[in-house]
């Protein structure tokens, strides 16, 4: 099964959210840092 780059990043973000549940707001900046994903990438694919 082929998964696009956008799909891979989306999966990484969902796993990160599941692993770091706080019950509140988690800034994209924190997720981007933990997953080593450019914040600019999030801005282009909302």
The level of helicity is: 55-70%
For the sheet with most strands, the description reads: none
Count the beta strands.
0
Radius of gyration: 11 Å
Helix run count: 3
**Mean pLDDT figure:** 86
Oligomer: single chain
Q: How far apart lie the N and C ends?
A: 24 Å
Structural class: mainly alpha
* Order of helix and strand elements from N to C terminus: HHH
CA-based shape: globular
Amount of beta strand: under 5%
Low-confidence stretches: none
How would you characterize this protein structure?
By secondary structure, this protein is mostly helical. It is 63% helix and 0% strand. It has three helices and no strands. The protein has helices spanning 5-19, 28-35, 39-44. It is globular and about 35 Å long. The model has no long low-confidence stretch (mean pLDDT 86).
Which SSEs are present, and which pair or pack?
Elements: H1 5-19, H2 28-35, H3 39-44
Helix pairs in contact: 1-2
Short descriptors:
46 residues; mainly alpha; 3 helices; globular
In short:
With 46 residues, this protein is mostly helical. 63% of the residues lie in helices and 0% in strands.
């Amino acid at each position: 099964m082929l998964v696009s780059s956008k799909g891979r990043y989306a999966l990484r973000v969902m796993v990160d959210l599941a692993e770091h549940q706080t019950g509140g707001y988690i800034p994209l900046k924190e997720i981007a840092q933990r997953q080593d994903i450019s914040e600019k990438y999030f801005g282009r694919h909302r």
